[in-house]
């Protein structure tokens, strides 16, 4: 392991374990042992991690840097860099910059002309993608969606047309509501819920969105949660199937309601369904007049 003082000046973004303390790289341990100044989203978590791995602060400062004190602490870190010090920043868990206050710090350091280096490692997003059994060739990380249902549903509408596996963070208290809204807006897509990754009670539930929502209602999950939602299967649906579904819906619904219902039911884009519903309704009116 490197000794304190061997690092070149600059900011080092260090990934820390998301659960299992042994999921840390040798390079991360070297950086934690060598940096002049240690900054952390949660100083208690960082001190505990260092203690587990036998790294002593040895008189070095360990300061907190998070959403609530970032504006006040950034000048201190920039001053340390200006004095030629090496600074490590660690998230509470996982990779800095991923749903993490490190973004403003890294940007300020870069704008000030100091070097920024990443020491990659654990990430809940990547770990969940490897377990979910969903396509990983293209994915979109949306972090935490809004808490309020109206805003959450609007955000899901905005994600609906993305041709990618969706990755979300959510709390145990709200995950059932999120999955219910997602099943109504995105349709019965394949999905997975990963919780407590790398920990003793790690679990992955894999099922269609409606079933996953029901599962979380009947057996609420606990711990840190990542939700993954598969791509739409709309390309596999025949035009004739869509047309028949619209005709059936128009027997008991308005054009607008029929378009909404079929687009959700089949997981297809709403605009072409609405245009089809308008045409079919017009044809029915025309036939009725003859």
Automatic annotation (TrEMBL):
Keywords on record: Cytoplasm, Methyltransferase, rRNA processing, S-adenosyl-L-methionine, Transferase
Top class in the EC scheme: transferase
The protein's Enzyme Commission number: 2.1.1.198
InterPro entries for the chain: 4pyrrol_Mease (IPR000878), 4pyrrol_Methylase_sf (IPR035996), 4pyrrole_Mease_sub1 (IPR014777), 4pyrrole_Mease_sub2 (IPR014776), rRNA_ssu_MeTfrase_I (IPR008189), RsmI_HTH (IPR053910)
Main location: cytoplasm
Any one of the GO CC terms: cytoplasm
Reaction catalysed by this enzyme: cytidine(1402) in 16S rRNA + S-adenosyl-L-methionine = 2'-O-methylcytidine(1402) in 16S rRNA + S-adenosyl-L-homocysteine + H(+)
Membrane spanning residue stretches: none
Residues of the RsmI HTH domain: 239-280
GO MF term set: rRNA (cytosine-2'-O-)-methyltransferase activity
Subcellular location, record wording: Cytoplasm
Pfam families: RsmI_C (PF23016), TP_methylase (PF00590)
Tetrapyrrole methylase domain boundaries: 11-212
Family indicated by similarity: Belongs to the methyltransferase superfamily. RsmI family.
Function: Catalyzes the 2'-O-methylation of the ribose of cytidine 1402 (C1402) in 16S rRNA.
HAMAP family: 16SrRNA_methyltr_I (MF_01877)
This protein's name: Ribosomal RNA small subunit methyltransferase I
């Amino acid at each position: 392991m490197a000794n304190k003082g061997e690092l070149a000046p600059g900011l080092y973004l260090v990934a820390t374990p998301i659960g299992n303390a042994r999921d840390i790289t040798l390079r991360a341990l070297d950086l934690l042992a060598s940096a002049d100044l240690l900054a952390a989203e949660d100083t208690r978590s960082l001190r505990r991690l260092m203690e587990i791995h036998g790294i002593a602060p040895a008189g070095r400062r360990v300061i907190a840097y998070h959403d609530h004190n970032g504006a006040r602490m950034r000048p201190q870190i920039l001053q340390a860099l200006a004095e030629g010090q090496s600074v490590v920043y660690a998230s509470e868990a996982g990779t800095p910059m991923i749903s993490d206050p490190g973004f403003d710090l890294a940007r300020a350091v870069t704008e000030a002309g100091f070097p920024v280096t990443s020491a990659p490692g654990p990430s809940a997003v990547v770990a969940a993608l490897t377990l979910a059994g969903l396509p990983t060739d293209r994915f979109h990380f949306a972090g935490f969606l809004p808490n309020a249902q109206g805003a959450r549903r609007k955000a899901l509408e905005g994600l609906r047309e993305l041709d990618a596996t969706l990755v979300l963070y959510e709390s145990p208290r709200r995950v059932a509501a999120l999955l219910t809204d997602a099943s109504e807006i995105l349709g019965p897509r394949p999905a997975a819920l990963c919780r407590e990754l790398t920990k003793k009670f790690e679990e992955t539930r894999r099922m269609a969105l409606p079933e996953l929502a029901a599962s979380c209602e009947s057996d609420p999950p606990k711990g840190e949660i990542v939700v993954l939602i598969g791509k739409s299967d709309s390309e596999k649906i025949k035009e004739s199937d869509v047309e028949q579904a619209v005709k059936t819906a128009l027997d008991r619904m308005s054009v607008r309601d029929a378009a909404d219902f079929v687009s959700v039911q089949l997981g297809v884009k709403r605009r072409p369904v609405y245009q089809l519903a308008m045409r079919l309704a017009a044809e029915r009116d025309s036939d009725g007049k003859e």
